[in-house]
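Closing statement on the LLZGTKA7 sub-project.
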Amino acid sequence: MTTQQLIEQIKIKKSFLAVGLDVDLDKIPKHLLELEDPIFEFNKAIIDATHDLCVAYKPNTAFYEAYGIKGWMSLQKTINYINETYPDIFTIADAKRGDIGNTSSMYAKAFFEDLNFDSVTVAPYMGKDSVEPFLAFENKHTIMLALTSNEGAFDFQTLTVDGKELYKQVLETSKTWKNCENLMYVVGATKAEYFTEIRKIVPDSFLLVPGVGAQGGSLSEVCKYGMNANVGLLINSSRGIIYASNGTDFAEKARAEALKMQQEMEGIISLKF
Ligand SMILES: O=c1ccn([C@@H]2O[C@H](COP(=O)(O)O)[C@@H](O)[C@H]2O)c(=O)[nH]1
């Protein structure tokens, strides 16, 4: 999917919500556990119930890898289902990859070619040659960690290196990389006060923003400081939506939570544009 197509979807749906598909077998409704592929059945129900309210789905691959080959097959069925049934939806493999160049190329093939995700998250720690193999794929997007939502973000990311905070160095340096137009960045919703500075460095880039809902970040604060002329934000909520209920009404309740977020987003968009 191109960035322009993503922007169009945001305008059509009046939403910039990314629903996180972080499936934990201990948290899903018990009746699903009797089915052959409970993870896929859970995802399918959530996707069918929320697809008109969101512009993206973000499975975190950890929640699939944890179940071995069966989990990976559930991930594959989930991405195929989204691509076949709702092809206008942007897909994010939250895998946080990155390695020496030839290894990164294989990671990129796995997520962009084999699984056919629109985007994958990567870590910047290994630098340019670990990220550029992902950027080489046309109409695919590489979402690099910049300033994460967790407390540990302050261990390294905000340290000053050569007179500048590390997360700012990461953003600035990444703009010099080949095919950097294919970059987006992860910035945590719990760090709303940093968005103004981040927008000075990457005014036009899309930011994937996890950390609302269960982690306590504020949607309105993020929008106040982080929105650009194309919205430029994908706000993720995982547990706050998919685990709204663990009963037979789980999909209905997930829809209700997604609708609350979409309506808040619609309100913000209508005020701003
Ligand atoms: O800085 C980061 C980067 C990634 N995540 C991931 O996003 C979701 C958040 O889930 P919630 O249940 O809405 O808290 C999850 O997959 C994280 O691994 C993040 O939270 N922060």
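The pocket of LLZGTKA7 is lined by residues 20, 22, 60, 94, 148-150, 186, 188, 210-211, 213-215, 236-240 (CB under 6 Å). With this model delivered, the sub-project is considered complete and its resources will be redirected to Aim 3.
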